[in-house]
Write a structure and sequence with these properties.
The complex is a heterodimer of chains A (98) and B (388).
Chain A: E1 37-41, H1 51-55, E2 61-63, E3 69-71, H2 81-85, E4 91-95
Antiparallel strand pairs in A: 1-4, 2-3
Chain B: E1 3-8, H1 9-19, E2 24-27, H2 34-45, E3 52-55, H3 59-71, E4 76-80, H4 82-87, H5 92-97, E5 103-108, E6 133-136, H6 140-155, E7 163-168, E8 176-181, H7 184-190, H8 214-246, E9 253-256, E10 263-268, H9 271-284, E11 289-294, E12 296-298, H10 302-308, E13 314-319, H11 330-338, E14 347-352, H12 362-373, E15 381-383
Parallel strand pairs in B: 2-3, 2-4, 4-5, 5-7, 6-7, 10-11, 10-13, 13-14, 14-15
Antiparallel strand pairs in B: 1-8, 6-12, 9-11
Classes of the chains: A alpha+beta (98), B alpha/beta (388).
Chain lengths: 98, 388
């Protein structure tokens, strides 16, 4: 059964109809590997409004105990929407290779 | 033992679905399928089966609703024709990919343009590669029998695929034919209640229709192909069982007077009966003619074809759809491909016939055989009887 693995290795292991019987397993797919740029927060500019958290299409931005925000880089695709929406300009998109 | 009735074939196909006690019918009416849609609706309205009839705004919605209902474990039937089938095309491969045993009754009709409501196979042929099992019925009796067989084959746990039953629009759908309508008890014995592999239900979590990344898409396609290829064993088995129970024989390729034949016609659908008469007439003239009738289009019966063409010198394949700018009609090109590795294969010629409801008579089939025997075909494929 495919429930034991991240995804089936062979065609024989695929459930009929590609049905998935374990809910929420999309979280095991780390879309962070797609990222070319990563968001970096400058907390000296951040006003803790949470607009980055609201607009993140991946839902990978969380608020820390101190009220500042950070992205989970296992899932952050680097789309830059958070940086685009951040009106105090507290988020910079930085090339991954830099 | 069933009851011999005189019934319009479209009505009979809906009656056959009723004998299968469908749970859901999601159908949008279109000529020449409309009587199927209307009668399914009547059957539900009259409470003859415990079922829902979903009135939909289009064929795209009809098949989408059918996918949804089948995914909940409901025995589901739909029906369409021509442009309606083309409008369903987006959902067709999804139904098979989800391995949902929906049964679709198709009243085969030409596709536009020019707009034409009459019969040919240009609706189903472009849908060939959508992963459905395809039966082709030759007469009203076969429509009824194949409709019942379709549920049995599709729902078999070794298959789990949707099945379409092709019946020629008007030539079959609007004919009143003598049909032996099986009894409810007989059908119940042949077709057990549907036990789905999995169903959409809040208590038992399952995701259907998930994303398939490049890492898994090819494996998913392979598994679907294997399912369709292997389904032929179940089709053969079910047809044998049908013969044992009902006494009517079904074969993927049915041969008519081919034992010593040198030249054979090949047909699909209702024209087989006309071609039979042509073969009889040619035999009277001393022509060693025969006929091969394809009843199972998908999965394609390669083994049966190779066996059926043994000893033939010429095979005249008739197609009722065009493959514009291609190698010939879709049936022709498949037959040629299937026999490529057979050392002693017949010469294979192709006639495109009966397009958009053009009548094809006994003399036409006789003429096709005579000309094919002489090798007098100017092109790889010929629009038979075309003016100009």
């Amino acid at each position: 059964m495919m429930t034991e693995k991240k995804w089936p290795e062979t065609w024989q292991e695929i459930n009929p109809g590609c049905m998935v019987f374990r809910p929420g397993n999309a979280s095991e797919y780390h879309t962070g590997s797609w990222r070319a740029k990563r968001p970096i927060w400058d907390n000296s500019k951040c006003i803790k409004c949470g607009v980055c958290y609201i607009f993140c299409p991946e839902g990978c931005i969380t608020e820390g105990a101190d009220g500042f925000f950070e992205a989970n880089f296992d899932y952050c695709k680097g789309c830059g929407i958070c940086a685009h929406e951040c009106w105090p300009k507290a988020i910079a998109m930085v090339n991954e290779e830099d | 033992m069933g009851k011999r009735v005189g019934m319009e074939v479209a009505i009979a196909s809906a009656e056959a679905a009723a004998l299968c006690k469908f749970d859901v019918a999601a159908v949008y009416p279109i000529t020449p399928q409309s009587h199927v849609a209307e009668h399914l609706s009547d059957i539900v309205n009259d409470g003859r089966v415990d079922a829902s009839f979903i009135t939909v705004e289009s064929e795209h919605s009809a098949l989408s609703a059918a996918v949804g209902s089948s995914a909940t474990g409901a025995r589901t039937v739909t029906a369409t024709s021509s442009q309606g089938l083309l409008f369903m095309s987006e959902i067709l491969p999804i139904a098979s990919a989800l391995r949902l045993p929906i049964v679709m009754l198709i009243a085969n009709r030409a596709v536009s343009g020019p707009i034409n409501i009459w019969n040919d196979h240009s609706d189903i042929m472009p849908m060939r590669d959508t992963g459905w099992i395809s039966f082709f019925a030759e007469n009203g009796q076969e429509v009824v029998d194949m409709t019942i067989q379709a549920f049995r084959v599709g729902e078999d746990r070794r298959v789990m695929l949707p099945v379409n039953v092709n019946m020629d629009g008007f030539q079959l759908t609007h004919m009143v034919e003598p049909i032996i309508m099986p009894d409810q008890e007989e059908v119940d014995r042949f077709l057990p209640p549907y036990v789905p592999f999995a169903t959409l239900h809040p208590d038992k979590v399952v995701s259907m229709g998930t994303l398939g990344m490049p890492e898994i898409y090819a494996e998913a396609q392979k598994s679907k192909d294997v399912a369709l290829v292997n389904s032929i064993k179940v089709v053969r088995e079910v047809w044998k069982e049908w013969e044992a129970q009902f006494g009517r024989k079904y074969e993927p390729i049915q041969s008519y007077r081919t034992e010593d034949a040198e030249i054979a016609l090949m047909t699909m659908g209702s024209m087989g009966e006309t071609a039979e008469i042509a073969v009889d007439e040619l035999r009277k003239e001393g022509v060693k003619a025969g006929l091969l009738k394809i009843k199972l289009w998908r999965p394609f019966p390669f083994d049966e074809l190779k066996k059926a063409v043994k000893g033939l010198k010429v095979l005249a394949v008739t197609d009722r759809a065009c493959s514009f700018g291609g190698p010939g009609g879709p049936v022709f090109s498949e037959i040629r491909c299937a026999l490529y590795d057979v050392a002693k294969r017949p010469k294979i010629v192709n006639y495109l016939i009966g397009l958009g409801g053009r009548d094809v008579q006994v003399e036409n089939f006789m003429d096709m055989v005579r000309r094919a025997a002489k090798g007098k075909l100017s092109e790889p494929y010929e629009f038979y009887g075309v003016r100009g």
